Amino acid sequence: MTPLAGYLLVAALLFSIGLAGALTRRNAILVLIGIELMLNAANLNLIAFWRYGPHPEALTGMMFAIFSIAVAAAEAAVGLGLVIQIHRHAHSTDLDAMNRMKG
Amino acid sequence: MSLVFYAIAGLTVAGGLAAMLLKNTVHCALALTVAFAGIALLFLELDAQFAGFAQILVYIGAVAVLVVFAILLTRGSETPKGGVFSRNWLTGLAIAAGVFAVLGWAVLGSARALPGPGGTPTAAPTVTVLQIGNALMGRYVLPLEIVALLLTAALIGAVIVAMHEKEGAK
Lengths: 103, 170
Prior knowledge:
The structure holds 2 protein chains of 2 kinds.
Chain A: H1 3-24, H2 28-52, H3 60-90
Helix pairs in contact in A: 1-2, 2-3
Chain B: H1 3-21, H2 25-45, H3 49-73, H4 89-109, H5 129-137, H6 141-162
Helix pairs in contact in B: 1-2, 2-3
């Protein structure tokens, strides 16, 4: 197994763990945590392809990962703000209990 | 594939698994921090020093702290009565297992076509922070500005969304 394949497998495993968590957990914050894990797995893929790709000096994968980290930080801030507002409104972060859109 | 890689990969995957499986939400946040640190170590192992330290600063320094704040503000550490997993957890698990099977099949099936020689490590690309800064200010200046705008909008949006509305003050 080449090093690149090892990194890709680890990233695939992390992505699947995050996806399973996002689909099965009931707490809204843990769903966000699962989404963060999936984003991190994607970043790991970008960096691994940058390192073992033909032109690492072009910095493309590195730049992609850096911008992705910045966007993920913005996503986490807005998502957790929404969760806090929902908790204030419904006094719960249980996603199974949120079954109506009316305020 | 060195022993260091296997150790870090095991730590990262164990942290991710613990973050998704533990019952207490605060413990989940701590396990998430371990997973983030493992990914930062993998970045350093891949000779991406800048991305590794950015990962430590942004994820361990900011996102993990934000998650802990949200958990404590919503009293999410109390275990709910009906268990921590959703009613249709089997469907979610099946979907995730299917996704992993497809991804693993694709990676292992194309292992020969992937770039990089098998076994022998290639020479590490020397990337200095100066090069990254020049690239950010030169070729990637438009994405940088867009990210700056996005971060400003997210900052204002998060504050407005989470702002406490006083009764009758509309």
